[in-house]
Design goal:
The chain has 598 residues and is an alpha+beta fold. It has 4 domains: 197 residues, no CATH class; 96 residues, Beta-Lactamase, CATH 3.30.450; 33 residues; 218 residues, PPM-type phosphatase domain (Phosphatase 2c, domain 1, 4-Layer Sandwich), CATH 3.60.40. It is built from 15 helices and 15 strands. A 5-stranded antiparallel sheet has the order 2-1-5-4-3. The radius of gyration is 53 Å and the shape is rod-shaped. The termini are far apart.
Length: 598
């Protein structure tokens, strides 16, 4: 709330009268009360008590005056008291009704002042009728104490000011009206000062009590404001319930969650609609003195648009409060339900992905050729699908031809997933069939492309075919748009390119083939482009691949393919399939070593 200036506070009536005008410039001690108004219900209770006492005192004083002075004098003496009490009654009614002609604060202050005038006037009449009897002066002390109980300055200063004026004027004009003892009659001003000092002491005691109660009220108010701030700031709805389960108070979150209908006075179970999640039992715990039956657990709340919001309701008893017997906490479970649904969907998706990967792994295992057992040759392969798909278009095949030569095929079909695997399988099957039928290597890629153009017209793939004679180590290679093979011999590695267009292009393959000879211990590496495309720089990838292959020449063949997939930094395992097929001609056996002792 924006701070108001003094002028604006004065205009809106927020400054007490004693701080307006020139009085606001006077310093005020910290031990003096602030004059904070009492809450309406407390003020009404105290004012009603003092007003009843004023009317009773007025009746008693009237009877005393009639018996002592007659009816005529009695009416004159008690008329001011009756007018003050009547004014206090009328102003209290006006302040409670909230008249437009006056503010509630002004009406309360005026009613309090009128009630105090009635009480001190009764005390003054009692002193007059008793002839200055000292015991009747005690009524002034009672009136000042009652004025301090209002805990605002206007009625308090009204009572004290009346006593000062009354004693000062009457003591100087008619001493017999104030004091009935000889000392008071001989020295009226001295005894007026004594009475004034005692009255000031009584006023000081009342002010101290007033200030102490005001400090306690301020602390309780701050504590209440802090509690309301905390309760109003939390996201859960908090409702105070009476013994019958009706809502007494609710925080803003509860109004947002259970509104827009009024909450105060309604039964909590009327605002809820039963169990909110399938599989959870409908709450039906027996009622307790502090918790209504049917409340607790999971429920639904119907919103403005007719949609239902799942909520969790918990009820805790409250002890020591006659009005509030329980506190209910209503928590919105929409986000929890959404998160639970998302988690279940994720688990189902993960399970489906796991099953799919198992199916794909089983399919890939079925597509792999059986182990190649050829004397003098060692063959190993490693394959890693892209992280984005469980399968891809990288495939290999090997076969011992009727001539005794070994056919090695590496295919990289365009695309991802099982569709690419299907196209790659079609290429390897076609190449295998044509090779077994005796198709020359120079024509194998072109003939396979012609067949696939009919059987799989959408297929596009690169292919590298090698035919190896295990007896001589002679290797011939035919390519179709595929990266070159790598030959590792004598501790060095070099590229062995095989020219030709890939399958799916016009005039795939070429009539030329490449040829190398594997000496015992030499290694030939066939691979797919995922192994060298991690940086999108093919030349850099080829250089790293040849260097890595040369460094791994001394390792067993079974370890080389997997090391190529991990050691070559340009391997694009995250975005593309990677395949490495390694074939090595077995080293020639060395001369037999002499046995010791022979």
């Amino acid at each position: 709330m924006a701070l108001l200036s003094r002028r604006e506070q004065h205009r809106h009536g927020r400054l007490p009268w004693w701080r307006r005008g020139s009085l606001r410039r006077l310093p005020r001690a910290r031990w003096l009360p602030q004059g904070t108004p009492l809450p309406d219900d407390i003020w009404r209770g105290r004012h009603r008590t003092f007003l009843s006492a004023a009317w009773l005192a007025c009746v008693a004083a009237s009877a005393w005056a009639v018996s002592a002075e007659g009816l005529r004098h009695a009416l004159a003496d008690t008329l001011p008291i009756a007018l003050a009490a009547l004014t206090a009654t009328a102003l209290s009614i006006v302040s409670v009704a909230g008249s437009r002609l006056t503010s509630r604060r002004w009406g309360r202050e005026a009613a309090s002042c009128a009630a105090m005038l009635a009480l001190v006037a009764v005390a003054a009449l009692a002193v007059h009728l008793s002839g200055g009897l000292i015991e009747t002066h005690f009524l002034f002390f009672i009136a000042v104490g009652a004025a301090a109980a209002y805990q605002t300055w206007a009625p308090f200063l009204t009572a004290v000011g009346f006593v000062v004026v009354h004693h000062g004027l009457l003591a100087s004009t008619s001493e017999h009206e104030i004091f009935n003892h000889p000392a008071g009659q001989q020295h009226p001003w001295l005894w007026a000062l004594v009475h004034g000092a005692l009255l000031a002491l009584a006023a000081a005691v009342g002010i101290a009590s007033w200030r102490a109660e005001e400090v306690v009220r301020a602390r309780l108010s701050a504590l209440g404001a802090r509690s309301r701030l905390i309760v109003g700031s939390i996201d859960d709805g908090v409702l105070a319930l009476d013994g019958g389960g009706r809502v007494v108070e609710a925080n803003a979150a509860a109004v947002r969650l259970l509104g827009p209908r009024p909450l105060t006075g309604r039964l909590l179970r009327e605002l809820l609609e039963g169990a909110g999640e399938e599989g959870h039992p409908r709450p039906g715990a027996p009622a307790t003195p502090s918790a209504p039956s049917g409340v607790g657990g999971l429920h639904r709340v119907r919103g403005r648009g007719g949609s239902c919001t799942p909520v969790a309701v918990s009820v805790a008893p409250v002890h020591g409060d006659e009005r509030v017997r329980a506190v209910a906490t209503v928590r919105d479970l929409s986000s929890v339900v959404r998160a639970d649904s998302a988690e279940r969907a994720l688990l189902e998706l993960t399970e489906r992905a796991r099953v799919q990967r198992q199916d794909v792994a089983a399919l890939q295992s079925a597509l792999r050729p059986p182990a190649l057992a050829v004397p003098g040759l060692q063959v190993a392969v490693a394959y890693e699908p892209a992280a984005a798909a469980p399968a891809g278009g990288d495939l290999y095949d090997w076969l011992v031809l009727p001539s005794g030569q070994v056919l090695l095929v590496v295919v990289d079909a365009m695309g991802r997933g099982t569709a690419a695997t299907r196209e790659a399988l079609a290429v390897t099957t076609t190449v295998r069939t044509l090779a077994v039928a005796g198709c020359p290597l120079e024509e194998l890629v072109a003939r396979a492309g012609a067949v696939l153009e009919v059987t799989h017209p959408q297929a596009m793939a690169t292919v590298l075919i090698a035919v190896l004679d295990p007896r001589t180590g002679r290797v011939r290679l035919a390519g179709g748009g595929h990266p070159p093979a790598v030959l590792v011999a004598a501790g060095a590695a070099r590229e062995v390119p095989a020219e030709g267009l890939g399958i799916g292009y016009l005039q795939p393959g070429s009539g030329a083939t490449a040829e190398v000879v594997l000496s015992p211990g030499d290694t030939l590496v066939l691979y797919t482009d995922g192994l060298i495309e991690g940086t999108r720089d093919i030349d850099e990838g080829l250089r790293e691949l040849t260097a890595t292959a040369a460094a791994l020449a001394d390792l067993p063949v079974d370890e080389v393919p997997a090391r190529l997939l991990t050691d070559v930094s340009t391997c694009a395992r995250e975005d593309d399939d990677c395949l490495a097929l390694v074939v090595r001609r077995s080293p020639a056996p060395g001369p037999p070593q002499p046995q010791p002792g022979r």
